[in-house]
Amino acid sequence: MKIGFIGTGVMGSSMVRHLLKAGYEVNVYNRTKSKAMPLTEEGAVWKNTPAEIAKTSDVILTIVGYPIDVEKVYFEEDGVFEGLSEGKTIIDMTTSTPALAEQLAKEAEKIGVAALDAPVSGGDLGAKNGTLTVMVGGEQAAYEKVQPILDTFSSELRLFGPAGSGQHTKMANQIMVAGTMTGLIEMLAYAKKAGLDLEEVVKTVNGGAARNWSLENYGPRIIKEDYSPGFFVKHFVKDLKIALDEAEKMELNLPATTQAYELYKNLESVGYGDEGTQSLIKLWWD
Amino acid sequence: MKIGFIGTGVMGSSMVRHLLKAGYEVNVYNRTKSKAMPLTEEGAVWKNTPAEIAKTSDVILTIVGYPIDVEKVYFEEDGVFEGLSEGKTIIDMTTSTPALAEQLAKEAEKIGVAALDAPVSGGDLGAKNGTLTVMVGGEQAAYEKVQPILDTFSSELRLFGPAGSGQHTKMANQIMVAGTMTGLIEMLAYAKKAGLDLEEVVKTVNGGAARNWSLENYGPRIIKEDYSPGFFVKHFVKDLKIALDEAEKMELNLPATTQAYELYKNLESVGYGDEGTQSLIKLWWD
């Protein structure tokens, strides 16, 4: 079974390495070719367009930046759909809109192609260590067929329902993260103003009912003024926008998530888009 | 060393039991006398007023409901201050205002009494198991003197600075919790509307960067529609109000915490004050 992989950024490159290690033949394409070159030295085969990837592979994985990039990769000239044929499977792992996941599934079905949406969580480290959480939407049969492939880079893999369900689950995840991040940042802003020792506060607060991953991982980094991205502000802004757009469609009011989105949008607008999400503290400290 | 204990509610009663078990003589007082009676059968001695408690004890611990209750217990007729004398120590463990903690310390100092603010975190279970987190403010010498006493019911005990610092640290803790709770509730509201299996979402989301104590503990309870209080809505509303008042005094804007406060105040106003904080989901589901 030949795999095609489109989008060899930080996340994608690590995933390709896990696929190669597991013995899969992998064709790769990336908008910026140079980023895919190290992978070709490790055994991956470069293809010149997404269409070529689709033509020469049985299962096509994509992980790109924004929903607009997903649309381009699949539907534009030389896009994936130009190279697809019956029996193949497409898997979009970009965090994107449930509606686009449904559209991909619908277009794929017309030509006998299976489609899954499978956004991931776990960041660059999770990709590197092969411990990503993969949240899948689509048909059971297609899911079962590609499970061994997704298993090569994930420690938690689950089918949540029909097309779009993977994206919805990822949105739920990001809504939760919006809460832990805003809570953490406002806690640190308060503690500093109150003259408390931040290291002691982080340690003590994390020992009880306020314990969370963001506090454990970003608390110490913020104290050390380390704002390097584990997860980009600009991508979090995109994710929260999708979550809120979906919520609006469902006539669901999410005031705390809306507040988090506004804070992060504000942060992006003052130039922190390419920093890590922990840099939200910059709205208070500078 | 004789200990006086005022406020034998769910938290206080467990704390008194740990003190008795450690061999301390404990005098008790509670506004509703009947709630203290089981403790007298276990060796505690009933006193008729806070003043009597103060007169007959060396270290006086208080844990009552609201800052107004703290003021009454200390400053009213038959209050603690009527019975205090030089060399004694007062420790208020109520989650209250830093300003009131400072006032207590100031009044105490005038008569040669040491004062500590020492709010706790860890809930009814933490009190029962003797694993509370105790966040202390006050003088180092007074802190060291009473450490063995506080140790009987805590697993994490720390002095954060001068009078009021314990309360400030507790506020930082509650700001963090406001984030995890609103995130959790909006996540569940979204996941349900999107038609996802809530149990699977909770399990998967808690496996990654969104992991937190509220999700682990309240996620499953909410799915089972268990809204019994681990922590009362009305007390969380009080705590967030104190945090926001303090923030305002420090000219600190906390938009996410403000949003959480408004949601919880709304929840209280529609009749959920005596339910657990996980009942916030009732603003979405009913």
UniProtKB/TrEMBL annotation, chains A, B:
Species of the source: Atopostipes suicloacalis DSM 15692
Annotated protein name in UniProt: 3-hydroxyisobutyrate dehydrogenase
InterPro entries named in the record: 6-PGluconate_DH-like_C_sf, 6PGD_dom2, 6PGDH_NADP-bd, HIBADH-like_NADP-bd, HIBADH-related, NAD(P)-bd_dom_sf
Keyword vocabulary terms for this entry: NAD, Oxidoreductase
Gene Ontology molecular function, alphabetical: NAD binding; NADP binding; oxidoreductase activity
Family under the similarity heading: Belongs to the HIBADH-related family.
Residue span(s) of domain 6-phosphogluconate dehydrogenase NADP-binding: 2-157
Top-level taxon: Bacteria
Positions of the 3-hydroxyisobutyrate dehydrogenase-like NAD-binding domain: 164-284
PANTHER family found in the cross-reference section: 3-HYDROXYISOBUTYRATE DEHYDROGENASE-LIKE 1, MITOCHONDRIAL-RELATED (PTHR43060:SF15)
Gene3D superfamilies membership: N-(1-d-carboxylethyl)-l-norvaline Dehydrogenase, domain 2 (1.10.1040.10), NAD(P)-binding Rossmann-like Domain (3.40.50.720)
Active site (UniProt): K170
SUPFAM superfamilies: 6-phosphogluconate dehydrogenase C-terminal domain-like, NAD(P)-binding Rossmann-fold domains
